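Appendix C reproduces, verbatim, an entry submitted by the partner laboratory led by Prof. M.T., so that reviewers can inspect both the input and the predicted structure.
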Amino acid sequence: MTHPRIEQFLFTHSEWLRGLKGIPEEDGARHFGQMNCISWTVGHLTWHEQRTWLERQQGLIPFPHLNELFAYRAPMSTPSFQEMLATWQKVARQSEPYLEGLSTESLQAPVIIDGKERSFTVGSTLQRINYHYWYHIGEIQAIRQMLGHANLPEFVGNIERQAPYRPE
């Protein structure tokens, strides 16, 4: 059975996709002042997923360009929204078997980077990236409001059915 924390994370993935639904390519590329465009933000979370679940945990880097273009504090750019979304989907699919195999014990294990044990755990990292998503979901919804998009998600989706609370 999938760990409850992973169920919550996969629910966040579904909410992320719900918030991106219906964005046209040209709107994904719009910048407002110093804000990154939606397509860059999709690339940024794709980079975070790849770095966290594929690179650090499994030694895999399927999309090396993400490390240069979308890392924290990477310069503003305007990638293709559809390309970034397709890349995100590939990284998410490739990460799922690892995530679904996590247990309470493995979530409590320290993260190891470059052979060195860090002071934070896999579970803390899971929480960080989960909250990172919610930050950017809100940001993207604000951008979509500025773009005049209608019928946007107004609140968290059906968590009671998709990822209800259950003890570990």
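Residues 4-162 form a domain with the Four Helix Bundle (Hemerythrin (Met), subunit A) fold (CATH 1.20.120.450). Additional entries are available on request from the coordinating office.
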